[in-house]
Amino acid sequence: MKKIFIYIITLTLFTFCTKKISVDTIIINAKVFTVNTNFDKAEAFAIKEGNIIDVGSSLEIQAKYSPTFINDVKGKTIIPGFIDAHCHFLGLGMQQQKVDLSGTKSFDEVVQRIVDFQKEKNVSYITGRGWDQNDWEEKEFPTKDKLDELFPNTPIAVRRIDGHALLANQAAIDLANVTIDSPEKGGFIIKKDRKLTGIFIDGPMGLISSKIPKASAKDLVQGLKDAEKICFNLGLTTVDDAGLSKQAIEIIDSLQLAGELKMRIYAMVSVSDTNIDYFTKNGIIKTDRLNVRSFKVYSDGALGSRGAAMKKSYSDKHNHFGALVTPLEDLKRYAEKIAASDFQMNTHAIGDSANYVMLKTYKEVLKDKKDRRWRIEHAQIIDKSDFNYFDNILPSVQPTHATSDMYWAEDRIGSERIKGAYAFKDLLNTYGKVALGTDFPVEKVSPFLTFYAAVARKDLNNYPENGFQMENALTREETLKGMTIWAAFSNFEENEKGSIEVGKMADFIILNKDIMTVEAEKIPFIQVEETYVGGERMK
Q1: Is-contact 276 305, C-beta < 8 A?
Q2: Residue 224 φ/ψ, nearest 5 degrees
Q3: 27 vs 70: CA distance, rounded Å
Q4: pLDDT per residue over 268-278, tens digit each?
């Protein structure tokens, strides 16, 4: 007690004798999870010109600094701003302008939503996303017949929730000049009785999508702003957009420079020889808001549409293995070209065959190159013998995929292969880090669902009661790191964000509950009260 008294007296005298340092903001009386190396807690920190300049106790920070604004959070929890390591930020924004088919429980409901959408919008070409036949009583792919009947003259192309399958009506098929004999490169066109069903999986979707009217620059701008609002409200301060065009990146850059887009974006460039040549020649683009230093590549499709490339046949479809959506020779050529630059290669790989192919390719082209942080996006199904390849390859995974797929995934791949699926802990133990994301709008945007799925391995129906393959659950500390500092590391940004430390950007969020101690079942319902990017309040 005597020591405490002396400390307070000393601090008080120091305060009176020392001129306080002017800062923009101090945060006090908080429960701060700094996510620094020691995972220390703190009570307060000071912000100047968008950066954190000091972290300590409330007493210390108030004694040292003269702020323009004091934010007394009265004991609430503060964590670094969430970083979504794999999402489709622009895609989320553009989806706000299309028919939303997520959560539909039958094809009839899909049709009704399309009808309602068209009554309101009356567009010349109907597009949308979100249906999932695995959520319906009849778990087979739908056919175009009903859409042909209701919309004989209006083309319709609506994507499955994962974006790897598409349903098109006859009007859209005719517009694209697709016939029963059209090529099926890098995927499948589903037929029945020598007739098109309207279902296109992976590569052949391009036959249809090539005729969909392109979004205007104005549409893209609005989409980006819509997505930003959604994400800030949920505590995201950096998003890794997994596949952007050169045009989209230029629009993002111009909006950020003009101060019209505040979200920090790690942009993966959609791979092509043209894009590789352009971006590697011009070099990494790095501002405080934009980081362009990687290429997004697709190796295979998705498990839900049986497009994931598997070593052995699907358990629920004899003699079907999925497929590589990008030819192997192209994958290797891309890898060689990117390896010769400073850019990352971030490859979508779902099936155990696709993961094996990409891991082997990465190893071959990188050879002895250190700290390249090349990423496997999803790393969803791994053959038990292949986990060791992740010793120098960074896994970027999305926990809610596990809780979305768990109802039917074992039916797809069987009881043995499922043991190597959604194996986040095994991946963490191999590489030492995992970058966590959502893959929105494939999954819901909320990072709290990501956190819950990683820790509890349950969905919002509290299923399964004891969690799904809990041996691969992550701890809360591991999960928070995966959504902050490890995600920053995956972007080569760990020295500027991802933790609340001196010298880092003041990107943080204030929560209404302590995410580290609250009952697990309450995690999905935690609310973000305030979101800050560079010390500026965004919510």
Answers
A1: no
A2: -65, -40
A3: 6
A4: 999 999 999 99
Mean of per-residue pLDDT scores for the chain: 95
* Topology at the third CATH level for domain 100-209: Diaminopimelate Epimerase; Chain A, domain 1 (3.10.310)
Amino acid symbol at 40 = D
**Residue owning tokens 């060791």:** 388
Which strand (E) or helix (H) includes residue 15?
Answer: helix 2-17
Here the tokens at position 380 are 């969803």
CA pair distance 458, 454, nearest whole angstrom? 8
> Alpha helix (H) ranges present in 125-177?
145-150, 170-175
- Distance, in Å, from the CA atom of 507 to the CA atom of 487, rounded to the nearest integer, reads 14
Handedness of CA 14, 16, 21, 23 (dihedral sign): positive
- Judged by DSSP in three states, 369 sits in coil
DSSP string for residues in 276-321: HHHHHHH--EE-SSEEEEEEEEE-B--TTTT-S--SS-BTTBTT--
Give, in degrees to the nearest 5, the angle at Cα 162 between 156 and 168. Answer: 20
Handedness of CA 394, 400, 401, 403 (dihedral sign): positive
As a whole number of Å, the end-to-end CA separation of the chain is 42
pLDDT tens digits along 68-83? 999 999 999 999 999 9
The residue written with tokens 């990017």 in the block is 533
Sequence ranges of the domains in the chain: 100-209
CB-based burial label for 350 (10 Å; 0-12, 13-18, 19+): buried
Per-residue pLDDT of 230-258, as tens digits, reads 999 999 999 999 999 999 999 999 999 99
Q: Which residues have C-beta within 8 Å of that of residue 101, sequence separation ≥ 6? A: 110, 113, 114, 128, 129, 130, 131, 158, 161
Q: pLDDT tens for residues 14-63?
A: 554 569 999 999 999 999 999 999 999 999 999 999 999 999 999 999 99
Cα(157)–Cα(235) distance, integer angstroms: 32
